[in-house]
Amino acid sequence: WIDAPTRVGDLLAKGVLGAENGEVIVSDSTTVNLFKLTSAILDGREGALLTDAGNFPTDRYVLEGLAAGRGRELRLFEPADTLHGPSPEDVAQAVAHADVALAVISHVAYSSGALADLKGIEAAAGSTPIVWDLSHSAGAVAADLSAAGARYAVGCTYKHLNAGPGAPAFLYVREDAQSALRSPIWGWFAQREQFAMERSYDPEPGIRRFLAGTPPILGLIAVQEGVKLTAEAGLPAIRAKSESLTELIVTYHDEHLAALGFELGSPRDPGRRGAHVSLRHPLAWPICRALIDRADVTPDFRGPDRVRLGVAPLYTTHVEVFDALERLRGLVELGEHELVDAAPSRVT
Ligand SMILES: Cc1ncc(COP(=O)(O)O)c(C=O)c1O
Fold first, then answer.
1. Do 160 and 272 sit in the same domain of this protein?
2. Continuous H helices in the chain
3. Which atom of ligand 1 is nearest to the CA of 169?
């Protein structure tokens, strides 16, 4: 079990992320991995921290904390086309200032589902390190990290890798970039000859240097099985299914939901979105509550006005998506969202 973080990391690297053995570990949460990685990169680089204003909150918060702690600037840029998210041109422009230390960008945007051009952005960034957040793409869209020239990435396993709530996240560092980085957490699982306990800290040369403490084995086994199933089905087939499922949502929106006040909040081109679709509506929150309470459909509310529908291509069927949309249409037509308790709740 002690090697599970690297063993499962290798499965994930080869079967899902398009990376090599020895480049991925599965451990900790996405937030912690992002902190470890960005902090290690900042040790060796001067300058500002960069991300887009629409990136996931934890990514912004981690950078905000690092910037505050190190007396650096956090620069939030607005993509020229907010619906489609950061483009290579946006990134080229943002890193054109010589003083950018690193940028953090999501492969699939949590809110709109926009799919970023990972390879194009890597090329546009030049020598500026990009740390990719693959949380919404891992298991749904191929990242092809090696082929794209990506050097750093993190992501969770509880979305499209189906490992369940709280399953550990992953961290990727390309082999040639590993030995120059030192995790800010000097833990015994990163130590060379971990059980030679009397020695002072001397981290492993490879990816293990980003481990910290004892791995969560039960969650890791769930990641292992989720990754195996994903690799067995194959990302091309999973991607084709997700494009078809999200296309069904878009078509249904155009035919039935637009007339009820909904607006598509995701890219229309299936090639430019991941495996979720946002439908915007001024009463999105009570509509989400009504879907959960009265229609047995579980969306996410993403403020201020989005009903986010995520499909899990491995097991969500077209009939299930169609039924969910019929229930959504039916309850809005009947005004059932006006009957629910719309008090704010801790989880949305
Ligand atoms: C894009 C993105 N990044 C990071 C996270 C946070 O992950 P964790 O809770 O594993 O730290 C999430 C959670 O949903 C996410 O969607």
1. no
2. 4-12, 30-43, 57-70, 88-95, 118-125, 145-148, 175-178, 217-233, 235-252, 284-295, 318-334
3. 10
